[in-house]
């Protein structure tokens, strides 16, 4: 099977891994939103996750695999497509394509860079050790105080901005990615394409704004 | 009306080309775009210069030979119109018009606005047919094809193979072109038997010929002079997925 | 010389079956030893190359376009006839045969036409098997429409793009054979000479249009399927590259040109709108199914908006003159009637060379939506060109040169008088007589390609001593290549004042004015005077830019125009010789009191096959008498 070599096969791989990653982004978002419930919310959520033990590691490996495939083929296809279009037009005009469609590889790489930072920041907790949960006192229920870590982090303008910019990239990435998935997997049948595109964009905005809300609300001292 | 043209001039496949500027005076709005170029060429010949080489043949919008990107848009600004059917009434006095060849690695420029599109023929040869023999086939009404199916196949079959979809695609992908044939034949009972092999072989040919991959920009549909829909690309993707089911589970 | 068409004798109904039973065959394992050259990749050439390749022959196929899919067969819109009788409206092989012979004004060979009608049914089966998306009804059965010159609905169609779909079907079959390496395709290659060795066609000389290289190709047989020559007129509906060149080269090597004066002027084209125009666009004759043709009764009304002209001030002249066929009268008659109306100063639109084609009544009867479904693409095309909306305001149409019934003389086996040279489709003269009915060109092209030549070439090949006897190293090939080079250099060396297109226009205008829809002894003699003058001017004062070893479109066109300038004389000679009116050939001296064509069966019931005797020298006439056994000669009436 030439799933990894053919043009359609790789496109389907991108779509399927992309869809799984959207699933991850959804679950992660729901978890994160528990921050709005205060320390009790997110600290309980974090403890719950932590208690899953080996399952977390299986989950992490799967995610690693998905990211690896999605990123590798994304970059590979980008390079191939560049090679297929060696000369550009003196007058470049786009008819229907979008900024987000044209910048998929860049928003993708921004998200990758962010992902690495995010892992170092909140998971490995090496970028800002002074405000990391492992160095902060446990909360009242004797749980690692993730809430305080998050709040103290996003009160720093630089960290909040990094997160906001990355989430804008995610928004753009999803605004092409979600509807594109429907086409690639062969579910669209023509006129519905417009609706699918619109729904994809709306979903992307919902995801983007919801994610951005966390650092933004903390930065604005609405959430303390 | 008077226009200023900037036309891609390139002596041969190995030469470097560049845009040259030509004034177009007293252009009649009733002229077709190519008739306007004819006039420019007559002028160049009178001056002893080499006329602009461009592909054209039927000038009725059906043969698919004509192929120019006008102001960044394949076949020019009028929707669902080949450049031979584009009329100058679409332009205004004083307009600047940039005329360039199709640009893609798989379409090397041969001279001026003429490119080599053999790669499209190769994609067709990979599987764009039903392997029936001449003679010895069933009666035309033996397999019934309801109107909606026949119409769907016809919508796909309208492709004229001009290559505008590739010229418009940011990736120079030939997916719309390929999908139109895959979808036409996969929809019809006559073509179903070879649907698996066809979609595999034709999509492979896209890469082999140096075209890019489809990333769902849909520029192709917008540029297509025949309005071929990207729903056929979705159909191709479906057919491809179907072709991944091992034959042992079917037979 | 009296020519023999070699049609099987006896009962015409069984002639094709008997021919196939008696013919010599080539053993399957021997087929691969033969090489066949096919020039042209349209319906006839493409279908022929694919079928011969599939049979096992080595085929080399040539076309001047960048892909075989672009041959001008693709321009045909309306449909393809077949005697399927699916609607059960009384059709049969006999009736299609009869309509075709009658439509051709009794100037075709009965046996050839019978064969055409007989295989017409196979064509539809073949195309459906290839995946051609013909129009169908909701139950899934094939749909038919009616066409000019027939009282049954026997026309199969694929929207307004039937020619395109059939060509793409043939192209798909050809692509399959190219992949199988049975056919080698040579696109962007133009045939510039026929190589004849000891009186037998053995190959061709071509120019690679991309590099300018002159190449020689040998073949055990050469098939020309190079389409039509009506670009000899100014502004036709043919593609810009359509030319007489390939068949004219054959004529100069001894092939006879048959009935060149039978040219068809298509009634439903978009009228000329300006000086700069490069071609005319045809709209399918199927429009006449629903459109009503009229002109104002009073010349004073011609300038008015058509909606201001009341019903009783309109002359629906076809319905008036031909009540039983009405707007579906055959093409020659419809075209001539339009010309008469415009000659009587009743024409409409710019230049007053146009008549109305009105859909108002049809829209009222079946709704605009239905009309749009049937002809939407034609209305769109009309609007793009004229900037007028055909639903709201009647279309304007005028006749334009469109097709030639004449072509190289061939016998029943599609073989010209040069052994080894076969001619298919529009390039031969065979089945349409003096006028072709709508939807019959596609039928003939595919019949010749799929179902005739694969059979009729076998006896010739079987008769050869051994395959591949003469190859490119034969001195005749070298000589032909040198001749082509010399002529090319000559064209490039003139460096005169006039462009190729200017001279082409001059010739085209002379032909259209004098040898067009109505011809007289006077106009024809006038043309015979003018053509050599233009030819001299061409060879002394043309300016062909660029050089020979390069992609040079001016040079390509110059070669084609040079051939038209020689051929035009032969066409005109034929028109002058044929002192009768029949089909597309209308001599003003020969008409009834009502202005209808008047045939002269006593003196002209023959095929006029012309032998080239030198440029500017009167060609020699050979005759093939036409015998009518299955049908009786009758006055062709569509009243």
Count up the helices of chain A. 8
Which spans of chain A of ≥5 residues are poorly predicted at pLDDT below 50? none
CATH class of the largest domain in chain B: Mainly Alpha
Mean pLDDT across all amino acids of chain A: 93
Oligomerization state:
heterotrimer
The total tally of domains of chain A equals 1
The largest sheet of chain A, given as strand count, sense and whether it forms a barrel, is: none
CATH fold field value of the largest domain in chain B: Fumarate Reductase Iron-sulfur Protein, Chain B, domain 2
Flag low-confidence runs of chain B: none
CATH-assigned fold name of chain A? 3 helical TM bundles of succinate and fumarate reductases
Specify the helix fraction band of chain A: over 70%
Silhouette of chain A: elongated
Structural class of chain A: mainly alpha
- Enumerate how many helices of chain B there are, as a single number: 9
Share of residues in strands of chain A: under 5%
Descriptive notes:
- The complex is a heterotrimer of chains A (224), B (251) and C (639).
- Chain A has 224 residues and is mainly alpha-helical.
- Chain A is built from eight helices and no strands.
- Chain B has two domains: 3-111, Beta-grasp domain (Ubiquitin-like (UB roll)); 118-249, Fumarate Reductase Iron-sulfur Protein, Chain B, domain 2 (Orthogonal Bundle), CATH 1.10.1060.
- The longest helix of chain B has 14 residues, at 33-46.
- Chain B is elongated.
- In chain C, strand 6 and strand 7 form a beta hairpin.
- In chain C, helix 4 (93-103) crosses helix 5 (110-130) and helix 14 (500-515) packs antiparallel against helix 15.
- Chains in contact: A-B, B-C.
- The interface between B and C is large, with 80 and 81 residues.
